[in-house]
Amino acid sequence: MTETTISPEMTMAEILERIPSAQRALFQRYHVGGCSSCGFQPTDTLAKVCADHNILDVPEVLAYLNRAGEIDSKMTVDPTEVKAWMDAGDTLRLIDVRPAEEIAKAALPGAEPLDYSNSQQYMDLPKDSRIVFACKSGARSLDVAAYFAGHGFTAVHSLKGGLDAWRSQIDSSIPDYAL
């Protein structure tokens, strides 16, 4: 894998342009950038973000961000693998992170909607619970999976390609819809 060149003097906007998964990686590893209390501005340099959050090993952060795409890849799971887990009776929670109006347009069989109003119910789950998050395309669910990984969950996944991939690989009867 070719490393993207980033430096501590670059702004977070520049880094996110070069490494789109950098924000997920920062939150997952350092609990930085996932909410307003731990956030940063696009104009902040990486050095400032590290200093503001008491991260002393800036070279380690640089190396970690350069591996962010690989980390995202390890968190995604193909629809065929999820279907195999379900067919085998493996214990997993399939959680749809889309808003109710999207779920109403096209439901993912076996998925429960994420209850954003009661997030504590998920945080109380055993940290090794196998959870697969899904959305329409796999982008929002990857953010949610990274959030849970950042809170110590060790078996969280994002459905690669989301509902669109599930429809094309597993169940073509699920309606397509535009966002």
From TrEMBL:
Matching entries from InterPro entries are given as: GlpE_sulfurtransferase (IPR050229), Rhodanese-like_dom (IPR001763), Rhodanese-like_dom_sf (IPR036873), ScdA-like_N_sf (IPR038062)
Gene3D superfamilies recorded: Rhodanese-like domain, SP0561-like
Which residues are in the Rhodanese domain? 88-175
| Keyword vocabulary terms for this entry | Nucleotidyltransferase, Transferase
Gene Ontology molecular-function annotations: nucleotidyltransferase activity
Mind telling me what this protein is named?
Putative adenylyltransferase/sulfurtransferase MoeZ
- Biological source species: Engelhardtia mirabilis
